[in-house]
Amino acid sequence: MKKVLLLSCFIGTMAFANDTATNQKQKLIIPPDLLKNTFTVTDVRITVLDGYTPLLETNTGLVKLPKQSIDSLNYTVRIDSTDEKVIRNVVKDDYGVKGLLVCNNLSIRPLVMSKNAVVMVEVENSEGEPLFVTVYDNRSCKKK
User: Fold this and answer.
1) 66-97 pLDDT tens trace
2) How many CB atoms lie within 10 A of CB 34?
3) Three-state secondary structure call for residue 117
4) In the chain, how many H helices and how many E strands?
């Protein structure tokens, strides 16, 4: 059931993105530097991530909880660059992959923040070579 909900939220975001943004009167501002370093989503899958170790924030610090299985939305993203520093900046930026696909995505963020799902982003350079995988969970999208 969670997979169906996650998939419908993802499809709903893509289909009604303009309508949602208009109703809430929010604008997404993309810095000019990011326009030079575009990215393309080449694959989207929903899977179950086995062995995920959630962390709980307490007054004494972070506590690891027992490993569990959790729904995962997997993006494969190709960054239009071969410079690894540029690629890491585009992936982790609030106006890049992290912001546009996960933390500022109006249908994905509530699922991630409610700890019902995580988002995995597999990153490739412009030549299609895999570079690294980033996992976004509820701690990744907290506003500082």
Assistant:
1) 888 888 999 999 998 888 998 998 898 888 89
2) 17
3) strand
4) 5, 6
Rounded distance between C-alpha atoms, residue 64 and residue 55, angstroms = 5
Tokens of 23: 């109703």
Whole-number pLDDT of residue 96 = 86
The vertex-109 CA angle with 113 and 81, nearest 5°, equals: 120
Please give the pLDDT value at position 16: 43
CB 102 within 8 A of CB 73: no
Type of residue at 140: S
**Tokens at residue 77, please?**
């993203």
The strand ranges marked E within 17-116 are 39-52, 55-58, 61-64, 68-79
Q: What is the mean pLDDT of the chain?
A: 77
